[in-house]
Amino acid sequence: MATRRSAPHAAGWIALGGLLYTGTIVGFVGIEIYAGRSVAEHYFAIAPSISLGLLADGLSWPILAVIVLLCAALACYSIRYIEHRIELLYGEESEEVQAAYNTRFFTLFLYFPVGFIGTILSTNLVSLYFFMEVLTITLFFLMATFGYLERVRVAFMSLAWGIVGALLFLVAALMVYSRTGSLEIADLAQMTGAPTILGAITLFLVGLMMKLAIVPLHVWMPTVHAEHPTCIAGLLAVYANLALYIIVRVLVLPFGADFASFGTPLMVIALLTMVYGSLLTLAQTDIKRLAACSTISQIGYSVLGLGALTSAGVEGGLFFFLSHIMGKTIFFSAAGIVVYITGIRDTRQLGGLAQKMPLTATLWIIGSMMLSGFPPFSSFAAEWIMFTGIFQRGALSGPFMIAVGIGGVVAIVLTVAYTFGAARRIFFGPLSAELEERNLTDPSWTMTVPLFIIAGVSIVLGLYPRLVMDLMHAVVGEL
Fold first, then answer.
1. How confident is the model over 348-354, as a mean pLDDT?
2. Would you say the pTM of this structure is higher than 0.85?
3. Which residues sit opposite 184 in a β-bridge?
4. Burial 105-131 (b: 16+ CB within 10 A, else e)
5. How many CB atoms lie within 10 A of CB 437?
């Protein structure tokens, strides 16, 4: 209430301050992790076998740290962006009402880091399910209130897919409970060898693949990811990709040999997703839908590494997941800046914008390099590690798996084609007469500086990948 009567950007700065404080706490936890100690907290039992416990270790902490960074960066990015979005949607309302919408946005925004932190650190399957639903419901309200075309219909689409996927996850968790009498992730290994384990793994996988938008469960992604307010685009990329971490934590590590039979099908589906997602992206002329469809192909890379079920493949896939969400945050946010400044989404009506918006053009090129795996960004190191694991699997499994790995490498060319091809159409060549006459400039520093900071973090991790890989290997290396 106080922010409605104070400065119009107060809610955004308060949200950013809270996230910076959270990031400081995460930093102190990281000191413990680098010292070789995990950090576990058990708060209370909600019901028999259902508890709220949190665990930070070498696997969860790097993912948590990067995601909190992205949340803080996008909170800063949103301060100006959402003001513009509210003006477009609710410009006929009074200033007090518009200020209330601003406060509502940042209140909802903070539920994203809550959901991410809970999902990453939860030690209980039901509490993990709860935090996944926090993310789904938060996305619904943000889309319905601040989205673009047919925002209410699209919000219900995202809600339906999110709820169904989470319910399948919950049913699988109950199957585990019926066999082991426990819902703790640490006790999942007790399910190994049980007659119902393949059914439980299948339900877990299908539910999580719905969130990952893996082909053929991808149909929600292009519409939902293109029509939400662009300032949360990076968070939706995290929302989708986070299922990969859950698969590793809940399926790959506890079930070992029982999960092995799913490896080859996952790799084949991942390759199809990479190729189909890239071709779908190449066909787009809407700048936001282009960025949205690219998420489908990028998720396929991480799943390809995971399906190899070698330590290098899984660790590289997780590292690529981190690289992808950083690159996608920059790539999609640059697309959002173009729409924010020009009001145009059709790439055929753009061109030559680098002359007037050099910082935005630079951010797009950086995002393209990060998604395409160019050094010195972390995606290059991630792909190198991941494909090492994939070809290790191929050496053991025969020519078919080697061919799948080669197909994955070739698919990188498609990523280069759609990212840099779009850059050429949007930022280079002659300016149209309409754009030439308009006073177009790069946006406020609050929308650009946070994105350059993310790029800097990616470069550091690309030059020193052991900052992440050593931590992950301490957990995943058992594979």
1. 89
2. yes
3. 124
4. bbebbbbbbebbbbbbbbbbbbbbbbb
5. 9
